[in-house]
Write a structure and sequence with these properties.
Elements lengths: L1 E6 L3 H11 L5 E7 L2 H11 L3 E5 L7 H11 L4 E6 L4 H10 L3 E4 L6 H10 L4 E2 L1 H9 L7 H9 L6 H8 L3 H15 L4 H10 L4
Parallel strand pairs: 1-2, 1-3, 3-4, 4-5, 5-6
Helix pairs in contact: 2-3, 3-4, 4-6, 7-9, 8-9, 9-10
C-alpha cells in the first residue's frame, strides 16, 4: 500500500481527493491536514510515503512544507497540487524537493498516477506548465525590489515599508521607481499585477 497524506485548507477539495483516492486499491489516505503546520505534524506522526500538499495554505505554504519534509522526513515524497501554477512556483517547488507538480484541474485519475510514479522514484511535472516554464520571462527585479514591491501591495505608506526593511524613505522610493521603470508600467498597482501574473511574488 502507498500511504498518503493530504494537505489542503479547503475541506471540500481535501475530502473529495480522499474519496477519489479511496477508489485506488493500492492507495491509502492515512492523514489529512487543513494547513501547512498541521501537515508537517501529521507527516511526522503517520510517516506517509507520499504527501499531496496544496501550494497556498495558511501557517506554512506548500513550498515551506516541502522543504521541511525534505529535512525531517526525507523518505516522504511530496506532490504539489495547485490551482495557481506559474513557472516560478514550479522552479521553487522542484528546488525545495517536490517530486510532482500537478494543477487542480487535472483529470480524475491523474493524481493517483502521479502518486504511483513518485512513490516508484520518478517525477512528474504537468506538461503545459513545463512548457510555460521554458518560455517564461525571467524576473528583472532584484530580491530587494521584490521585497519592497511585496510590502507595497496594500498601498502601504513608504515610511512603513522603510521601517520594515530598515531602509530610508528615499531608498524605498528609489526601489519602487526602479520596479515601475523595469516593468515598463506607470504605477505600483500595474507592477504588482505583472509580478503576481508571472509568479514572482
Amino acid at each position: 500500500m502507498i500511504r498518503v497524506l493530504l494537505a489542503d485548507d479547503e475541506e471540500l477539495i481535501r475530502t473529495a481527493l480522499a474519496a477519489l483516492l479511496s477508489l485506488e486499491p493500492e492507495v491509502e489516505v492515512v492523514a489529512q491536514a487543513p494547513d501547512g503546520r498541521a501537515a508537517v505534524t501529521a507527516a511526522l506522526a503517520h510517516r506517509p510515503d507520499v504527501a499531496v500538499v496544496d501550494l497556498e495554505m495558511p501557517e506554512l505554504d506548500g513550498l515551506e512544507v516541502t522543504a521541511e519534509l525534505a529535512s525531517v522526513l526525507p523518505d516522504c515524497k511530496v506532490v504539489i497540487l495547485t490551482g495557481h501554477g506559474r513557472p516560478p512556483h514550479l522552479q521553487r517547488a522542484l528546488t525545495a524537493g517536490a517530486k510532482g507538480f500537478l494543477p487542480k484541474g487535472s483529470p480524475g485519475g491523474a493524481l493517483a498516477d502521479v502518486i504511483r510514479r513518485v512513490h516508484a522514484g520518478g517525477r512528474y511535472v504537468d506538461p503545459a506548465l513545463a512548457a510555460d516554464a521554458l518560455t517564461a520571462p525571467q524576473c528583472p527585479l532584484t530580491p530587494r525590489e521584490l521585497e519592497v514591491l511585496r510590502l507595497a501591495e496594500y498601498d502601504t505608506p513608504v515610511s512603513v515599508i522603510a521601517r520594515r526593511t530598515h531602509l530610508s524613505n528615499g531608498t524605498v522610493r528609489n526601489h519602487l521607481a526602479a520596479v515601475v521603470s523595469k516593468l515598463g508600467v506607470s504605477s505600483r498597482a500595474e507592477a504588482l499585477r505583472i509580478a503576481h501574473h508571472n509568479g514572482w511574488l
